[in-house]
Amino acid sequence: xxxxxxxxxxxxxxxxxxxxxxxxxxxxxxxxxxxxxxxxxxxxxxxxxxxxxxxxxxxxxxxxxxxxxxxxxxxxxxxxxxxxxxxxxxxxxxxxxxxxxxxxxxxxxxxxxxxxxxxxxxxxxxxxxxxxxxxxxxxxxxxxxxxxxxxxxxxxxxxxxxxxxxxxxxxxxxxxxxxxxxxxxxxxxxxx
Length: 192
Known about the structure:
28% of the residues lie in helices and 24% in strands. By secondary structure, the chain is an alpha/beta fold. The protein has a 7-stranded mixed sheet with strand order 3-2-1-4-5-7-6. Strand 4, helix 5 (117-127) and strand 5 (128-139) form a beta-alpha-beta unit. 36% of the residues are buried. The mean pLDDT is 91.
């Protein structure tokens, strides 16, 4: 199956958004608040963008959201009318070309077909400024049903990211949301 713009738009329109927790991920927001407020931050596949809105409201004015479906971008605009439209980007992650100091990962990586994971790592590397950071959470489990979401484990991820990043943190996530507790890894990778 191809997980393209139409697929994701239909999921949003039909409220088939099991990944959407309805609020900002504590792991992402807590980490992001350690960054300088002037950092250029990208949240790819951000969905309804709770993290982007919370960071924006805390003074992080260079947060950019990228999604392949316009539905979640419209939802962000409805919930946070002052969020700059120029920072709500409708587009394909693999065609995006701007540079960022930090990229926050929550549920985008697990939504991609696993065959795209090497391309994801290479693309993240190209979108980051020198010594830029990829941070966020990855699933540390497998799922019974075919994805998305697609699971994985640390040894798989080390193969995917190892050529491009220095691993600063790669450990169980201590502040996962309750339903995902014990099934997530927190990552902080620096661009090589």
